[in-house]
Amino acid sequence: MIGLRSITLAVLLGTTAVHAGPEEDRQRFREFYQNRLSSIPLEAHVDGAYAMNAGAREQWLEMEEFPPYEFELDEGQELFEASFADGESLASCFPEGGQGVRQGYPYFDEEAGEVVTLELAINRCREAHGEQPLPYLSGDLAKISAYMAYTSRGNVINVPTPQSEAALAAYESGKQFYYSRRGQLNFACSSCHMQNTGLNLRAEILSASLGHTSHWPVYRLKWEELGTLHKRFQECNSQVGAVPLEAQSEAYRNLEYFLTYMSNGLEINGPGTRK
Amino acid sequence: MNGPVRWYSAALMALLLLAGCGGDSTPAQESTQQAPAAGEPAEDTVSTNPEADFPAALAAARERHQQAMDLEFAWSRAETLIESAENAAAAGDFAGALEMAIQAEKFAALSIEQATTEAEAWQARVP
Known about the structure:
The complex is a heterodimer.
Chain A: H1 2-16, H2 22-36, H3 54-65, H4 70-81, E1 107-109, E2 114-116, H5 118-128, H6 140-150, H7 165-179, H8 189-195, E3 200-201, E4 204-205, E5 218-220, E6 225-227, H9 229-239, H10 250-262, E7 272-274
Parallel strand pairs in A: 5-7
Antiparallel strand pairs in A: 1-2, 3-4, 5-6
Helix pairs in contact in A: 4-6, 5-6, 7-10
Chain B: H1 2-18, H2 50-70, H3 76-90, H4 94-121
């Protein structure tokens, strides 16, 4: 009888994390990194792998003095302020005129029943004013998003806790995506960024997922331009031998929703530079 | 894999010719691939008529890969093998094309298996 009770208790404890609510998930997520990388303050993870290696950090900080995204950031401001054909601009679609609002994205739109990312909101604004949507991976959309992130630097990520059934379903979908192995190499996001975080994969240090969404869009040296978070999602999936999904697909938006919620309380520091 | 399949094909053809069983059907008329059981990927069988067998093998690979795509668990290896099979067939290399189509279906089947397993397995990774 005692044995049966023990087994039942063990099963319940084992399944608690899976069925925990978003806020409990976030606390456990933070505790995981606190324990795994105890020498690194949680807030420092917004700098990714540069929070983990002093030499790499020093080089990165020097690069950030004259960041390679500087010109694209200026172009992003011009694009943000440019008038549409109907005389309106992007500022008309966002709270606070679109200044310093990055920390509230993505959010779950209860009316539409879906996750809205900043890039999706930018394109929907353009379409509402008779303009063509911009490509989601890089180029003008990434520049605009970078400018909006720049005006939000220092603001604390504050994605509202999913409350409705639909919002929770989107959150859970993103959570499942994050922990599911994919591709011929059989890797989940968590395989690199939790199981092996802090270790090296070839010459690269595997960053923590805490803070993963704080610094996008990013100028990656290998891209030689600013790219969006979903471009990186695609790249990660490709690297493990999975067919990447469409940028702004429901699955990727839900993944961004989960990941960003995990980083609630950390500061926006985008756009960023990465190798 | 290309070498052994070709060798077996050649050996089988030689045996058939020696036995006087060459037959008179044209290559495109007769399929020599054994149909796989429902839900199972094609097994490695020696095809004596790759040109006839290729269309069905390609269709099976495409179908299974599409199933994996719908599950959002598709593997890029299956995709590239399907493309390579199509290119090989277009170039007239039906033996190679058939082999790649069969491999593509196997990879696609593995990706579906992964999706099925991960529907539950992911939960064990949540801290």
